[in-house]
Amino acid sequence: MAQTDSQKYIEWTPSYQLNWNDFAGQPGAGAIGDAGTAVAIKAKPYIEKSKIHYIVHALFDKHKSWYRDKSPSLLAHEQLHFDLAELYARKARKKIIEIALTGETDLKVYNQAVQKILNESNMIDRQYDAETLHGSITKKQQEWKERVDKELIALQSYTDQRVDLK
């Protein structure tokens, strides 16, 4: 990523946990709640030596993420939004590989499959907030944490951000 991107984004890694200093944004006029986490999954295809490749990143946007209140439980809730982004980035990488194994060469097929996963990611993110009441239902928050951790482990072989279609 470009230097300006590194100042704006944090790439998901298993060793890095968000801290309140990462939240550099301000809540918008209609913002509700005590914090807001802006995450994105960027899936970019490119061609190198006449082969298709993808780079799939799970990113935390520092300048769009904000907080009004600080607590360890709220930070853990916001971290799980970031973890969910990585989970769906791994699902996208897996799908790209699965499609490649069929011999597909039409980039539109890959892009449509990735878009479907991104749409699902957005839906799951909203479901997470609804079921945990933005992290305030401790038992539900723990259930989501365990579920996401388990799925991240199950998809551990898809952690490489670069996907080469053979």
Number of strands: 6
Number of discrete helical segments: 4
Task: Name the helicity range.
Answer: 40-55%
Over all CA atoms, what is the radius of gyration?
A: 17 Å
- Ranges where pLDDT stays below 50 over 5 or more residues in a row are none
* Tally of individual domains: 1
Q: Which geometry do the CA atoms define? A: globular
By secondary-structure content and strand pairing, the structural class works out as: alpha+beta
Order of helices and strands: HEEEEEHHHE
Overall mean pLDDT stands at 92
Separation of the first and last Cα atoms:
24 Å
How would a crystallographer describe the biggest sheet?
4 strands, antiparallel
Strand proportion, as a percent range, falls in: 15-25%
Protein name: DUF922 domain-containing protein
Pfam families: DUF922
Written description of the protein model:
The chain is of the alpha+beta class. The protein has one domain. The chain is 48% helix and 19% strand. The chain has 4 helices and 6 strands; from the N terminus they run αβββββαααβ. The protein has helices at residues 3-8, 72-101, 107-132, 138-154; strands at residues 9-11, 35-36, 39-48, 51-61, 66-67, 162-164. Strands 1, 3, 4 and 6 form a 4-stranded antiparallel sheet that branches. A two-stranded antiparallel ribbon has the order 2-5. Helix 2 packs antiparallel against helix 3 and helix 2 runs parallel beside helix 4. The longest helix is centred in the middle third of the chain and has 30 residues, at 72-101. The protein starts with a helix and ends with a strand. The mean pLDDT is 92.
